[in-house]
Amino acid sequence: LDGVVDSEKVKSNNLNVKIPKSELEDEEKGMEEEPPRESDSNILDVSSDYPRDKHISIQRHLAELEKLADLREDEKKPCPLCPEEKFKACYSHKLHRHLQNLHWKVSVEFEGYRMCICHLPCRPVKPNLVGDQTLSKMGAHYHCIICSATITRRADMIGHINRHVNKGETESRFSTVHAPKSSCEVVKESATDVQVLPNHSTPQKTDSYFNPKMKLNRQLIFCALAVLAGERKPIECLDAFGATGIMGLQWAKHLRSSVKVTINDCNENSVTMIKENCHLNKMKVKLNIREEDNDETTGDGEENADTIEVTKMDANVIMHLRSFDFIHLDPFGTSVNYLDSAFRNVRNLGIVSLTSTDISSLYAKAQHVALRHYGCNIVRTEYYKELAARIVIAAVTRAAARCNKGIEVLLAVALEHFVLVVVRVLRGPTPADDSAKKIRYLIHCQWCEERVFQKEGNMVEENPYQQLPCDCHGSMPGKTAVVLGPLWSGALFNTGFLRRMLLEAVQYGLDEAQPLLKTLVCEAECTTLKHFSTHSPGDENKQEECGVYIKTPNTSADSYLVHGKRKSEAVLRGAAKRPRAEHSAEHPPFYYNIHRHSIKGMNMPKLNKFLNYLSEAGYRVSRTHFDPMGVRTNAPLVQFKTVLMKYSTPTYVGAQAEGPVHFPGDVQVGEGVPAAAEIKVEEADMEDDKAAVAAAVFAQSYPTHYAAD
C-alpha cells in the first residue's frame, strides 16, 4: 500500500520519470521501515546538476526543463509544471512548444537561473464565495530562488528579486544551491577604494549611499580639513554620516598622523561596509568601546597611524558625548536637526562643515518646507542659489549663538546638487552677539529684481520702499516688494582660507576643485580672473581670518599657514580691534544675471568685456560660481543697466562692428546721416527711454530709410 500511495503522489505532481525496478524494491523496503515525507513527494531529484531542495521550476536551460518531462516521440507526456486538468499529456513536439512559450519565455532570470512560471498547487488558496478550497483552481506563480517565496505576477517577482539585491541578499537560502558571486562593486576615488551596492546612488533604497556627483564636494571638504591640519596637529575629526566611509578614508589615507578620524553611522549594514572598506584600503579599525571590549585592528602600520575609529551611534549622541576639532554633517536632506549637537562640544577655532541636499526647499521650489525647516520666507529670484547659502548660514549662526559661540564663514558653495557651508567656531558670548547681529531681513523688488538688506534697528519705518534704490513702487501699481529672510548679511568667503585651500588642492592633485577655488578667490576679492595671483593682493603681506591677522610673506606661496598654537580669547579680542586692511573689504552681496537684464532687440557684449567695462567705470566686479552668467558688483542696478545698454549693439545690424552706443552728450553723427536724425538723437532722453535709444541707433545705421519716413 505504501508503494501505491507513493506512486499516486508521483503521478499527482506529473513527474512521470521511469525508475528501475531495483531502485523501486529498495525504496519499498525503506518505506516499510520509515514513513514517507511530504517533501519527497513534492521535489524529485532529476539531475545531479541541480540541488534536491531547489524547486523544479528553477532551471538554467530549456533542455533541462524538457528533461524533466522525458520527451519521447512514441509516448504522450504531461507537463511537469502544469496539473493534468490544465494541460493534458501530449506528444513531444507539442509539449516542447508548450514549455517554450508558456513557461520559458515568461520566466524571470537571476544569476544564470530561470524562474519559470509554475501552475502546480504549491501555495495556499484563498477560499472563494462558496467556501470551496480545491487546489484545482490554483493560479500561476513563481518560486523565488533566494527565499523560496511564491509570487503570482511576473512584475511583482522582478520587484521582489530587486529588493533582495538592494538589501545585499543575493545568496540563496537553499542549502545546496551554489552561492552566486558578490553583488558589491569596487569604486575608486582619489586613490581610495570603496565597496558599494548596485543601487548605491538611490538613498531611499540602500543603506550605503554613494553619489559620484558629490566628488567635488568631498574634495572641497578635504582641502578645508587639510588647512586645519596645518594649523595644529593632531586634530580629531568626525564624519557623522559615514555611509560607505569614503570621506573618512580619504582623510586618513592622505593626512596620515595629522588627523584622528572617526566615522559614524547609525545603520548596522553601513557600519559593516565601512569596516570592510577600511580593510580594503589596509587601514586599521578601532571599534567603539561600547560595542566590544577588545579593539580589532587589521593592516600594517604604526600603532596610532592609519587607524580609523568606527562607531555605531546616532549623530546627535556622539556629538554630545565627545569633542572634535572638525565635524562634517552630510545627512540625507536638511541638517538643521544636528546643528545644536554639532556646536555643543566643538572646540574653539574648530571647523564645522555641512552639506545640505534639500535643494527643493532651499531653491524656493517648496517654500513651505523652507519656512518649516529654516524659519525663512523666500521666493524664486535670479540670485536664488546665494539666497540658499545665506539661509543655511543663518540657521548655523542661530544654532551656534544658542551655545554661546560665534562663527566666521570660510566658504559657501551652492551648486546643482548641494549647498556646502564651512564655518570656523569662535567661542564666547561676544563673537556670538556679533554673528547674530548679521542676521537681517532682505527687501526684494519683484519688478526689477533690485534688493537691499533692511537697516539695523527695531524702529518701524513709515515707508520701507524708500530703502530700495529703484522707484518701481512709485511707477508701478500695487505692492512691488517682498521681505525675505531672515538671512545672513555678512561675507560668504574668507580670502586667506581659500588661498590656502587652493594650495592644498594643488599639493594633493585635486584637479576638479582647483578651478572652483580660483573662482571663489576672485569672487571673495571681487576681481577678475586675469588679475588673479597666488600671492596676497597689493603690497601688503597679511591675511585676516577670524579677526586675526596672519602674516604671509609674498616670497613664498607655501607660507599661507597659521601657526600651530591656538589663540586665546584675549589675543582674539585684541587682534579684532585692529583696523581691517583695505584689500580685505567684504565682497558685495548678491549678483546680477546679465541675461535677466538684457535689452530686447540688442546684442549684449561678451561677459568678460562687460566686466572690463564695469571695472573701467570705477566699480568692483567679478564673476560668481553661483551663476555662470552672473556678475557680482557693487554697482547699483541702474548703473548696471546703463553700462549694459551703452555697449550693446542692435540685433538687426549684421555688418556693424561691436562698439558702444553713444549717449546724448557724446553722440557722433556720421557724414551720411542727415540732420533730422541728429536732432532726434539730441532730443531723446537716452537714459530713461530705451525705445528712443534703439530708434537713434537705427537712424544712424539706415539714414536713407529714416529720411524717407
TrEMBL record:
<dbReference type="GO" id="GO:0005730">
    <property type="term" value="C:nucleolus"/>
</dbReference>
<keyword id="KW-0949">S-adenosyl-L-methionine</keyword>
<keyword id="KW-0479">Metal-binding</keyword>
<keyword id="KW-0808">Transferase</keyword>
<feature type="region of interest" description="Disordered">
    <location>
        <begin position="15"/>
        <end position="48"/>
    </location>
</feature>
<keyword id="KW-0863">Zinc-finger</keyword>
<dbReference type="InterPro" id="IPR042296">
    <property type="entry name" value="tRNA_met_Trm1_C"/>
</dbReference>
<dbReference type="GO" id="GO:0000049">
    <property type="term" value="F:tRNA binding"/>
</dbReference>
<keyword id="KW-0539">Nucleus</keyword>
<protein>
    <recommendedName>
        <fullName>tRNA (guanine(27)-N(2))-dimethyltransferase</fullName>
    </recommendedName>
</protein>
<dbReference type="InterPro" id="IPR013087">
    <property type="entry name" value="Znf_C2H2_type"/>
</dbReference>
<comment type="similarity">
    <text>Belongs to the class I-like SAM-binding methyltransferase superfamily. Trm1 family.</text>
</comment>
<keyword id="KW-0819">tRNA processing</keyword>
<keyword id="KW-1017">Isopeptide bond</keyword>
<keyword id="KW-0694">RNA-binding</keyword>
<keyword id="KW-0832">Ubl conjugation</keyword>
<keyword id="KW-0597">Phosphoprotein</keyword>
<dbReference type="GO" id="GO:0002940">
    <property type="term" value="P:tRNA N2-guanine methylation"/>
</dbReference>
<dbReference type="Pfam" id="PF02005">
    <property type="entry name" value="TRM"/>
</dbReference>
<keyword id="KW-0862">Zinc</keyword>
<keyword id="KW-0489">Methyltransferase</keyword>
<dbReference type="GO" id="GO:0008270">
    <property type="term" value="F:zinc ion binding"/>
</dbReference>
<dbReference type="InterPro" id="IPR029063">
    <property type="entry name" value="SAM-dependent_MTases_sf"/>
</dbReference>
<dbReference type="GO" id="GO:0016423">
    <property type="term" value="F:tRNA (guanine) methyltransferase activity"/>
</dbReference>
<dbReference type="InterPro" id="IPR002905">
    <property type="entry name" value="Trm1"/>
</dbReference>
<keyword id="KW-0820">tRNA-binding</keyword>
<feature type="domain" description="C2H2-type">
    <location>
        <begin position="144"/>
        <end position="164"/>
    </location>
</feature>
